Amino acid sequence: MKELQKRPPYAMIAILFVGAFIAFLNNTLLNVALPTIMTEFAVKPSVVQWLTTGYMLINGILIPASAFFVQKFTNRQLFTTAMIFFTAGTTLAIFAPEFWVLVLARMIQAVGSAMMMPLLMNVMLTAFPIERRGAAMGMFGLVMILAPAIGPTLSGWVIEHYEWRTLFEIILPFAIIVLLFSIFKLKNITPNNNIKLDVFSLILSSIGFGSLLYGFSTAGDKGWDSPIVYGTIIIGFIALILFVWRQLKLDEPMLDVRIYKYPMFALSSVISIVVSAAMFSGMILTPLYVQTIRGISPFHSGLLMLPGAIAMGIMSPITGKLFDKYGARVLAIIGLTITAIATYLMSNLELHSDYYYIMAIYTVRMFGMSMIMMPIMTNGLNQLPMKMNPHGTAMNNTLQQVSGAIGSAIFLTIMNAKMESSAEKLAADAAKAGNMPTTAEGLTQFKVDLGMKAMLEGINHTFFIATIVTLVALVLSLFVKRVIVTKES
């Protein structure tokens, strides 16, 4: 282990990085293509959404179990198996004759990609000494952030020039090459334990996280008063309470919740949840404003968000090195201050705000966020003993998935509520002032204009709430302390 820490296996890590990059890229690649797929297979919006919902549910089920897989199997076995599933799913998607086959293909892909992030994070924590972890995790952040962020832009360009199957055809050669390299070149560096899987824990985890993800992700479409929405959320919470209770009773828990007795890890989890929710709000609301209110194409909408992704990608390794030198607290305070200011500016958008002005604010916002996530998460993981790293990474990745879904649902609900109240107020004000149109054509245009103004107020109000959420994270970051690691850790 000491030798590995002196000279990390860079060639092996490069193979893992490329595999993780295409898996993370795949996460957001289909979003822009959903309307095209909906038309081709003649399915409703609520049905086509299963291409993302199904993918997300598999992630929600498998990521909590990743702590067991990482400990039970070698990194070579796990990565090769993950790439086999991912490559098989990608191949099936290219030739999918029916919609249900495409959904199945996406879920098979998700089986592979769900293992990528926890596995890669554990390899990084094992391969690099603690004083160099920041730089190493910064490079990992480059993959985790940049890949899904460039997905919509690449997807928009492909959909404008080619058919949606081309998205999978682009990924397949890279997946095959990485799979072959993993079979012939990958070595084992992560320690293994002959532990047994507690099947009841896996069932409770699957029901708990799966139900929560499904309930919150469908709330925007079906509404909070839908029995399916609140029913699955209640079932999810009950299953998770039972899951936590069982983990505390087991000698070898599937996901050890005792990691929360370490204060910096607990604090890092809370900050990460808050920041993830705020980040997802921007990733949903910005394209909604640009495409719906400004009428800009999906490709140019993705292009608007690309500089922000590039800024995060460039900053991630730099942030990692700064973390090694100065710790997480300073970076988090600076990053959250920048993010809060940029988010507040996003809450003052107008009907005709300049395209490049929006691009600039969004880029600054993402620049601020590049200083937060990885330093906070790494600082928390540094406090855990080495044997608990798989549980820490599994918990972090699971909470990111869940908080993203919950944050998106809550922010969209806030936006819709504000839209409805604003539309009623604007209509009442127009009627009171005697400005209601008298012709059918004028009435149609009035409704369109009123809808646009109401949506703008809804988006601005939601960004303002996101600003407050970001300020909460900023206050929490003041309590972050740099972890001093002992040899026993």
TrEMBL record:
Claim: Transport is one of the keywords in the record: yes
Membrane topology: Multi-pass membrane protein
InterPro entries linked: EmrB-like, MFS, MFS_dom, MFS_trans_sf
GO cellular component: plasma membrane
Keywords on record: Cell membrane, Membrane, Transmembrane, Transmembrane helix, Transport
Gene3D superfamilies listed in its UniProt record: MFS general substrate transporter like domains, Multidrug resistance protein D
Keyword Phosphoprotein annotated: no
Segments crossing the lipid bilayer: 12-30, 50-70, 82-102, 108-128, 140-159, 165-184, 196-216, 228-245, 265-290, 296-318, 330-349, 355-377, 398-417, 459-480
SUPFAM superfamilies referenced in this protein's UniProt entry, alphabetically: MFS general substrate transporter
GO molecular function: transmembrane transporter activity
Compartment(s): Cell membrane
Domain Major facilitator superfamily (MFS) profile per the UniProt entry, residue ranges: 12-485
The family this protein is said to belong to: Belongs to the major facilitator superfamily. EmrB family.
UniProt xrefs under PANTHER family: MAJOR FACILITATOR SUPERFAMILY MULTIDRUG TRANSPORTER MFSC
Name the UniProt record assigns to this protein: DHA2 family efflux MFS transporter permease subunit
Native organism: Psychrobacillus vulpis
Higher taxonomy: Bacteria, Bacillati, Bacillota, Bacilli, Bacillales
